[in-house]
Design brief:
216 residues; alpha+beta; disordered N terminus
């Protein structure tokens, strides 16, 4: 009913913990499947496509069109066997990303973030992890990239409710990586010229395992 819908939107799609962060670790399999089964998988845009190299537009309409986009993003992410996907990676100029990603303890996190902003970390929380990083938009290429091993993102969920998401290790890397996408940055933009050249060489020498949009 309408009143219940209003209450649900005000309460938020996901529950929050005592510190106000979303609890995105419950019912991950069911939530991901529900999104994915309503969606249509789309090909992935790759480095060089203009939509990947500029800041995306803010999400202002949280209606049916956004819900279908999120479903398509979950479907596309599963096809590409990714752990995170930004809207511009399927050619849509909007600040929204989805994730289905484990942290370094193996705990699965699944959710949606619109209009994300990374929280600036105090110095005592900035421990760097220089693990390898890859990107669906730079298929088959990997390179070590130092990023903080803890990250917080503020934004909105798919209904427009304000949310806070935090993660450690691999999931922290995912949150930073996907937020970067929506502001026009690929991970290779944070590499040295030599490392970037090597990543592009890896991409050129191998075939992606999922459908991509060829750049004209």
């Amino acid at each position: 009913m309408a009143q219940q819908d209003t209450d649900q939107q005000r309460a938020g799609v996901l529950p929050v913990d005592d510190e106000g962060y979303v609890i995105d670790t419950e019912d991950c399999e069911e939530r991901e499947a529900a999104w994915r089964e309503r969606g249509t998988s789309r090909p992935i845009t790759v480095v060089g496509n203009p939509v990947l190299h500029k800041e995306c537009k803010d999400v202002t309409d949280f209606g049916d069109e956004l819900q279908q986009l999120v479903a398509d993003m979950f479907a596309s992410q599963r096809t590409a066997e990714g752990v995170g996907l930004a809207a511009n990676q399927i050619g849509v100029d909007l600040k929204v990303f989805v994730y289905d990603c484990p942290d370094d303890e193996g705990v699965r996190h699944t959710g949606v973030v619109c209009n994300p902003k990374l929280v600036e970390l105090p110095a005592e929380k900035r421990r760097l992890d220089d693990s390898n990083e890859g990107c669906l938009s730079v298929p088959t290429a990997y390179a070590p990239l130092a990023r903080p091993d803890y990250a917080e993102v503020t934004g909105q969920d798919e209904q427009g409710n304000p949310i806070r998401v935090r993660g450690t290790g691999y999931f922290a890397r995912c949150l930073q990586h996907e937020t970067d996408h929506l502001y026009g940055y690929l991970y290779i933009d944070r590499l040295s010229k030599r490392e970037r050249k090597d990543a592009l060489r890896q991409m050129a020498e191998n075939e992606p395992r999922y459908p991509v949009v060829a750049n004209d």
